[in-house]
Design brief:
The complex is a heterodimer of chains A (116) and B (114).
Chain A (H helix, E strand, L loop, with lengths): L2 E5 L2 E5 L4 E8 L6 E6 L5 E7 L5 E3 L5 E5 L4 E6 L8 E10 L5 E5 L3 E6 L1
Parallel strand pairs in A: 2-11
Antiparallel strand pairs in A: 1-3, 3-8, 4-5, 4-9, 6-7, 7-8, 9-10, 9-11
Chain B lengths: L4 E3 L2 E4 L5 E6 L6 E8 L3 E9 L14 E5 L5 E5 L8 E8 L8 E2 L3 E5 L1
The chains are: A mainly beta (116), B mainly beta (114).
Chain lengths: 116, 114
């Protein structure tokens, strides 16, 4: 079974500082990995995804993530934080249900706060 | 519409009442998912529909929860005899294919059981 662990339920950084949100996964098969962002009172929006192509994946809003198989990690980074980046971020790994359907397993989420 | 649409956006109900939550997926998307987001609990998978296949109901927390998808499009999640612990945001998502395709989420229905 797949699982995801996001280290740190809350992360706070200063505007302009590096953003690093940690995600470790467990998967018995080569995974598909995703980062989603959720702004207040909205649904989840895809930031980026890894689907076994390049290990460094670039997403929207200047975010990127690197797939490291040896570390089973898929950490999300952004060189310089903006106030608009304040949101909840979810890491997810795709799994397979008993009927062979894709089923995303989500981490607990990390709330990112940006300090002016 | 252009995105996944959920209704109502907010629902307040009394304990013991039944509620129905509706999801309109993106046109042409064959896969439809329901997730529950409780405070401090992350996202919990509830049920998955793919085309005409039998749904994956492995995430439904109790037999009070059921869902159907009519005509391969609109889906309704029904909670019978609601309990306070059912209070959460219920998110619907759809996708075009299965392997590695990201989900498109609606804005959710916030359910409050008093």
């Amino acid at each position: 079974a797949q699982s995801v662990t996001q280290l740190g339920s809350h992360v706070s950084v200063s505007e302009g500082a590096l953003v690093l949100l940690r995600c470790n996964y467990s998967s018995s098969v080569p995974p598909y990995l995703f980062w989603y962002v959720q702004y207040p009172n909205q649904g989840l929006q895809l930031l980026l995804k890894y689907t076994s192509a390049a290990t460094l994946v670039k997403g929207i809003n200047g975010f990127e993530a690197e797939f490291k198989k040896s570390e089973t990690s898929f950490h999300l980074t952004k060189p310089s934080a903006h106030m608009s980046d304040a949101a909840e971020y979810f890491c997810a790994v795709s799994g397979v249900s008993i009927q062979g359907a894709q089923k995303l397993v989500f981490g607990q989420g990390t709330r990112l706060t940006i300090n002016p | 519409g252009a995105g996944v649409s959920q209704s109502p956006s907010n629902k307040v109900t009394e304990k013991g009442k039944d509620v129905e939550l509706r999801c309109d997926p993106i046109s042409g998307h064959t896969a439809l998912y329901w997730y529950r987001q409780s405070l401090g609990q992350g996202l919990e998978f509830l049920i998955y529909f793919q085309g005409n296949s039998a749904p994956d109901k492995s995430g439904l927390p109790s037999d009070r929860f059921s869902a159907e998808r009519t005509g391969g499009s609109v889906s309704t999640l029904t909670i019978q005899r609601t309990q306070q612990e059912d209070s959460a945001v219920y998110l619907c998502a759809s996708s075009l294919t299965v392997d590695g395709t990201p989900l498109h989420f609606g804005n959710g229905t916030r359910l409050t059981v008093t």
